[in-house]
């Protein structure tokens, strides 16, 4: 993907089908070194019910990354304190999309008084969050369908502010 200008905007209900497909593609194409096919299928099934997926996105502060008018990633900030979802289209991986989305989520959380931001990072995303200053606190095994997925609960102190 060429390095054209990236823009961010709030989630719109019309984004749901595209972001559900992006979510599934990111899991299928980017997590294979860390999760097997059964785990990937169980994980991506979270977007099979697009209405429920849309409700999840709408229930958080969700930002969509656009490049040349196309959705290339998204982040959902839940309760101003937890990164619930952070996904990038496979062809946009490594181009700064995740960094821009995470920067925005951290800035918004801090601006809303959050002192500590948390995330349950997949094994694939663990290094990304560690590089950003998140510290691992707990290893988790999450049951999905007939399999288990590992992730790591992490937190980052955002600095001075009020609230959490």
TrEMBL record:
Pfam families reported for this sequence: Acetyltransf_10 (PF13673)
Transmembrane segments: none
KW tRNA processing (keyword) present: no
Enzyme class, UniProt record, top EC level: transferase
Domain N-acetyltransferase: 6-159
Keyword entries, A-Z: Acyltransferase, Transferase
Matches recorded under PROSITE patterns: GNAT (PS51186)
CDD domains linked to this entry: NAT_SF
InterPro entries listed in its UniProt record: Acyl_CoA_acyltransferase, Bact_Acetyltransf, GNAT_dom
Documented EC number(s): 2.3.1.-
UniProt KW Ion transport keyword: no
Domain of life: Bacteria
GO molecular function: acyltransferase activity
Full protein name: GNAT family N-acetyltransferase
